[in-house]
């Protein structure tokens, strides 16, 4: 909101990811601590709502990462057409569709919990949910296998092109004119964005793989002794995403510094 230079198509996608990460820290992690360590006295309806929010927010986060990957893919492979194909209106529409899709998917995933609150609990003061084998398999495919396959496929192609561009720039650096140096700076920016995306994907895999790998053995991961560890590792991805962007982008570090040091309150800011 404060930094006008951040109002770009890519940063709208980052905003979508930031909102999901923020909601994970604000709602899901405290809810998981309360659900796993204390007596749930908020009732079955609130428990069902919490379970729905878990699915909604996590699915929105995964969808945002896919959109960011696609955005970088177009920027690297079709740089001349990027401005016309990736517009603010289209990006906003994609973000809205991403969250609407996550909402409808969450209704499917949590349909039994929403229609019959408290059905799966074994005692009073418990908040848990049990999913069928079919639902767990669908979730494994849609929320892990498909996103991971899509992201890795796009990033491998991005990495190959980025490496070839870097080699081309190094070999022609002495013959670059002042006009073309602007294009080189743009290419370097794209390469840096590609590297950041690679780190983001690596962290995503590290945090998500244990949960979904264990779900291949036990569909209802939440009912196992390792549930809390796997779920918190799952959520920890949302803690690392902002750190990744804060460390890799100078303009983001500058904006944060202005806010933290309260320089935005100065008249000449």
Automatic annotation (TrEMBL):
InterPro entries for the chain: GPCR_Rhodpsn, GPCR_Rhodpsn_7TM, TAAR
Keyword rRNA-binding: no
Residue intervals passing through the bilayer: 12-29, 41-70, 91-110, 140-163, 197-214, 226-248
Signal peptide (from-to): none
GO molecular function, one term: trace-amine receptor activity
Localization per record: Cell membrane
Protein topology in the membrane: Multi-pass membrane protein
GO cellular component, one term: plasma membrane
Domain G-protein coupled receptors family 1 profile, chain residue ranges per copy: 1-245
Keywords: Cell membrane, G-protein coupled receptor, Membrane, Receptor, Transducer, Transmembrane, Transmembrane helix
Recorded family membership: Belongs to the G-protein coupled receptor 1 family.
Name of the protein: G-protein coupled receptors family 1 profile domain-containing protein
């Amino acid at each position: 909101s404060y930094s006008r230079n951040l109002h770009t198509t890519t940063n709208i996608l980052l905003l979508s990811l930031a909102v999901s990460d923020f909601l994970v820290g604000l709602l899901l992690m405290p809810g998981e601590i309360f659900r796993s360590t204390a007596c749930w006295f908020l009732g079955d309806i609130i428990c069902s709502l919490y379970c729905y929010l878990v699915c909604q927010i996590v699915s929105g986060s995964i969808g945002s990462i896919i959109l960011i990957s696609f955005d970088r893919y177009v920027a690297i492979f079709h740089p001349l057409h990027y401005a016309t194909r990736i517009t603010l209106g289209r990006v906003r529409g994609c973000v809205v569709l991403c969250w609407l899709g996550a909402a409808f998917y969450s209704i499917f995933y949590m349909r039994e919990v929403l229609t019959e609150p408290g059905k799966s609990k074994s005692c009073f003061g418990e908040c848990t949910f049990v999913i069928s084998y079919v639902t767990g398999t669908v979730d494994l495919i849609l929320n892990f296998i498909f996103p991971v396959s899509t992201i890795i496929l796009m990033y491998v192609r991005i990495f190959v092109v980025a490496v070839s561009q870097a080699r081309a720039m190094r070999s022609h650096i002495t013959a670059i004119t002042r006009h073309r140096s602007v294009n080189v700076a743009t290419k370097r920016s794209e390469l840096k964005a590609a590297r950041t995306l690679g780190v983001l994907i690596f962290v995503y895999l590290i945090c998500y793989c244990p949960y979904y790998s264990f779900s291949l053995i036990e569909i209802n991961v939440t009912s196992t002794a390792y549930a809390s560890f796997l779920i918190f590792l799952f959520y920890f991805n949302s803690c690392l995403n902002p750190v990744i962007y804060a460390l890799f982008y100078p303009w983001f570090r500058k904006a944060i510094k202005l806010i933290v040091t309260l320089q935005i309150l100065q008249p000449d800011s």
